[in-house]
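Q&A log
Question type: sequence-to-structure
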Amino acid sequence: MFFNPKRSGGTVQDNLLIKIRELIGSNPGMELPPQIFKEMEGEFMEYVEEQSLTARFPIKESYSNPFGFMQGGMIVAAMDNTLAPLSYLLLPPSITTHVNTTFIRPVKMTDEFIHVTAFLVERTPMQIHLRAEVKSPGGKLLATCTSSSAVMRRLKR
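Response status: OK
Response body:
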């Protein structure tokens, strides 16, 4: 299922956050979206139910490395900020246990944003395996990663 913001009465981002909150329930101290997602000005663009989630992140000058490209850690943060919400939508709540990243091309600071798409690879009752792709506005593949997450038990109150 694709989220259609006009039909569902809100933005893709609003609808996804509502759905994640419903799936996770009330966990004290859990903030959605997390501060880092807000700081990076991420925006969910598309969700294909049980398959993928795409987010867009602007490229900020403060993300520049000494060579004038987007720092690798910020690229990984953008991927994690897309992988984690997808994992919550698929098998909540879970925490990342492994991320393996491959940088293919540098992210140019002259690009306005990057698109990150996270995909489901496999799900078991206690783990979820995902992959992600980072693309330029023109569609060039810039980085990829694989990720594993472990399902957390509900927090006791």
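Response note: The first strand starts at residue 43 and ends at 48.
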